[in-house]
């Protein structure tokens, strides 16, 4: 009986095993499709946001000499930039609902690459090909490394997907790995805040670490809010749960404080340093938060994790090289820059500033490119005109020294 029932039992179990095997590849392909959708939305959002910010910056530069400080409100360029900025932020926000947190956060390098390319395209100086390549070689290398790092991130990113229901988010919120991570983060944040406020330690690393710790909580709550909205749109209402509004309030509060510390950092340090160091610290903190809260790397093999880490390092290096090539702001320039004045761009052909002659005469109007000159200029000298006194053949000194006696 046992021998006779054995083949029939195997035949009965065969369709079930076949069905189980056929379902698994479909689930994997669907999850990779979600990763691709989220990555494309994030890239599109960062690209559009970068274009929008450059449009608004261009509008402010064009109206720099206007007496009305709010004249940019009446320009189409500024409003177009605002519309594109909202569209880009919506794209980045919606990307968190599809792909894992650890995959979306490093893709912000796209905005740095886009800003570098836009800056090179719209640069006003005209360079020779060799000089142009030598000047922007770091930017080109950095853009290439950032693209390679982005490709590795998308290819070997984590493939963990779960529905962002209120039950799942609550379960993650009270899990012991995230509670331990939150305890360590709160202690580190309080120590940094103490040194920053009480000891006046205004180092860029301290300020950007505060921004990164707040940003890690911001992206965790953003993914929760975006995921619950997506699940609600798909038919399962999640907006009536208290955890949704808790995450929404935490998202807004951490974003506001993060913007406050960023504004303080921008007043003390160069924007290029803030971009590179802030990207590295914020990405590292956000990936750590995603790995502990959403368990992004659970079930991933060692090869995928190592290749993902390699992609992050390559993207970090690319962003560092791009921001390294930016010009540092000069606090004082001893010449009249005509191309910085609105409406004066076509005064001369090459867009070069009007420089002093600096050839023993005090005259303006020599159109020379003095980029190769030293930063400290020698002061211009005025010719000394000697007055003629007495006879024509005798020259008098250019000045008279009056000697006073001791009695006077």
From TrEMBL:
Q: Which GO terms describe its molecular function?
A: magnesium ion transmembrane transporter activity
Entry GO terms, CC: membrane
InterPro entries linked to this entry: Mg_trans_NIPA (IPR008521)
The compartments listed are: Membrane
Q: Does the keyword Calcium apply?
A: no
- Segments forming a coiled coil: none
Q: Where is this region: Disordered?
A: 388-408
Q: Which residues cross the membrane?
A: 36-56, 77-97, 103-123, 135-154, 174-196, 203-231, 243-265, 277-296, 302-322
Superkingdom, taxonomy of origin: Eukaryota
- Pfam families, per database record: Mg_trans_NIPA
> How does the UniProt record describe the way this protein sits in the membrane?
Multi-pass membrane protein
Where it mainly occurs, coarsely classed, is membrane
Question: Which key words tag this protein in UniProt?
Answer: Membrane, Transmembrane, Transmembrane helix
Does the entry feature the keyword Membrane, yes or no?
yes
The record's family statement is: Belongs to the NIPA family.
Q: What is this protein called?
A: NPAL3 protein
The lineage, from the top, is: Eukaryota, Metazoa, Chordata, Craniata, Vertebrata
